Queue: 3 jobs
Job 1
Amino acid sequence: MALKITSDCVSCGACEPVCPNSAISPGDDVYVIDPDKCTECYGWHAEQQCASVCPTDACLEDPDHKETKEDLLAKFQRLNPGKEPEETDKWQPLGRSA
Ligand code: SF4
Ligand code: SF4
């Protein structure tokens, strides 16, 4: 499932540049993740980069956007045509929900 940013976000901006899918942008109050672009980093990294850098643990799984690995792979391929997915054997879901 895509990740979402909770009200614990302090708008430090650390997550925006580390997202491989350019899914994160500043919002009115907190940063926001576009669920159509978030692959939970599937296809790019073994771990969710935004959650790794967030100082307040504000990046969590969004229960309203449940997706299988196959869904995430399809999204990755749509967003990155022709790119081979990487680290899929090491990828793990975040395991923390909003
Ligand atoms: S989990 Fe990965 S793809 Fe999704 S918003 Fe965070 S950094 Fe971007
Ligand atoms: S890293 Fe965390 S606190 Fe900083 S902008 Fe992103 S979600 Fe907000």
Job 2
Amino acid sequence: MHGELADAKNGVPTGVECRDGIFAVRSTVRRFNYFWSVPIMPNARLLLSYAHPDDEAFGSGGLISKYVAQGVDVYYLCATNGDVGTMKPEFLEGYNSIAERRLAELDCASQKLGFKQVFLLGYRDSGMMGSETSNDPASLWQAPQEEVTRRVVEVIREVQPQVVITFNKYGGYGHPDHIAIQKATTDAYLKAGDATYLTNGQQPYAPQKLYYSSVPKTILQVGIFMTRLRGNDPRKLGANKDIDLVAILDHIEPIHTRIDVSQWYDAWDEASACHASQLGARSQTIPTWLRRQLAPWQGLTRIHPSPNGARGYETDIFAGVTLDERRGVTA
Ligand SMILES: [Zn+2]
């Protein structure tokens, strides 16, 4: 499975309707104002390593929008094509498969978020834990971890990100693909800088910081309360009924870093709207206006360097980072 690294625009159909209008205008104005009010960060590179087309927007859309506006080159590694996501039949009109639709949605979100490049590893979506699809030999869950690690190392050495973000050990909400890419990314983060670990003539590159994405506890607690209030089961949310808010809360890891995204909710929602076929969980939990009030920040767990009991919250994932220039890729 050591294929060529793919760009999101290669072979991805376009044509997903993105929500425009007032949100787009507001976020464009905000980006413009922000551009003039904050220092631009030359040579800053961030890699998000997740599993599906939608993880980037739903989980990290605010943070991505903010750093792109600061001039950071943000890259997305998406391990699967989202082949088995559940969706209503109308979303498949004009598409040959679920994966094709979801990659088109990713293309839409990528343009909204402003990714520098998207890397598709092309594994098959494993579906829910214990399902038949998770036994598919082409699925990410069945792929040897060493193989996935190697492919993530290849992307890290190509992109040379100073900062890497992936899921927490529970994979955010226990999805097998999330767990698989978390393990591979954590492993790859350490191996990418090891000169004895060889990948097609690439030079070693050691990123400086590794984070796991998180969700504010308050958001989860209020989400569980409101879901029950509406008569829904907080353990079975989303288009695929596989999101368990109670289990997410049980597995949450300490938050060390809070990124203020209060100005970026519109951009975040705009990117999320691209993934229209997968929007179920959001509409079943907390409205944006309330999320904005409860947590105007996105939380992260800092894995490396260890926070070592530091007090207070870090407010910038690039704090303390040396912004080295990107070198030639091959040795
Ligand atoms: Zn996912």
Job 3
Amino acid sequence: MTENNDIAEIRRAVQALCAEFPGEYWREKDRDRAYPGEFVDALTKAGFLAALIPEEFGGSGLKLDAAAVIMEEIQSSGCNGASAHAQMYIMNTLLRYGSSEQKAQYLPGIADGSLRLQAFGVSEPTSGTDTLSLRTVAVRDGDHYVINGQKIWTSRAEHSDLMLLLARTTPRDQAASKTEGLSIFLVDMRAALGSGLTIKPIRTMMNHSTTEVFFDDLRIPASSLIGEEGKGFRYILSGMNAERILIAAECVGDAKWFIDKATAYAKDRSVFARPIGQNQGVQFPIARCYAQMRAAELMVHHAAQVYDQGGNPGAEANMAKLLASEASWAAADMCVQTFGGFGFAEEYDVERKFREARLYTVAPISTNLILSYLAEHVLGLPRSY
Ligand SMILES: Cc1cc2nc3c(=O)[nH]c(=O)nc-3n(C[C@H](O)[C@H](O)[C@H](O)COP(=O)(O)OP(=O)(O)OC[C@H]3O[C@@H](n4cnc5c(N)ncnc54)[C@H](O)[C@@H]3O)c2cc1C
């Protein structure tokens, strides 16, 4: 892939920043399940998290394809962009559907780091992947909406000032169509905490700062509504394409990290008086992962370019996410196998990255649901659910 100088410069700048956050930093955070605040602050200060914000609001006005490169480089440097990636992909909903007042109110603060937009409240414990069945409701009451319900897996909620929330505003049986009746809100969590919003952390197999969020008669100003009431599902789907593309770019970065580590180790580790990488049984899995990663990388950039041209690349974004998450997971498994016993030792970071990479064939959308989308919407097969 030939890249222009600007993209090459972004890669170099992200690598330089990430070099300040080596494996020991991430190991310590992982051990303590602590939020990598210093890393997120450094990304913010360098302007990377404001990449998609237009210049008039203090950002650098870059395209999604450039944002994807930033996320990829973070992962391929051994860091973990999950601590901050939502700011990139939530942004698109605000940019595409927010009013000019909302943009003027929030974007400059997000760009300069005084406001963090890191929480995305869609998933719920009972509805799971079936988003249209979600139960959190927002009921209009004069100049306010009153929110009741519960979200799960709302990552970074404890480290965010704002949350993009999807809630039902029209009961399902009264909505004009199956996909109408849901709305998106930009909730100011600073005002909400202790006044109807409660956050409970969930400890997971990797350090991900994820939580459960409870809404109990939370009153938010009606001006928090993004776009038109009842159209939230459509807006969220468009935002989810950006999310899938950026997560896919992270997976490509992870795959590159695993492939680089495995290659270097296979050259260096000598058993039976020769480098293990001289054995084709060790070489071939690394080579296969490389080919898989490159194919995924092409699809990620293709999807990002379609998005940047103003399209809604549902098929491309889903395929990018599918291919990249499978490539990173295959590379993670290959890397552990190449390292043998040392793959399990904390000090090599392989086991930590292995745990972190496992997430992406499940979230933000699982492989089955992507296959189902392709089967139905691209191939025209009968709808299965
Ligand atoms: C660490 C972590 C962080 C997350 N962060 C966020 C976040 O910030 N915000 C947010 O909103 N959500 C977040 N999520 C939620 C994530 O998006 C969901 O976990 C994911 O979409 C899967 O949904 P589910 O867990 O409800 O699985 P379920 O819907 O219960 O599905 C379970 C399994 O069944 C399969 N399945 C279900 N229905 C079908 C079907 N019809 N056909 C075939 N297979 C099917 C699925 O593929 C899956 O493998 C996070 C999750 C995790 C684990």
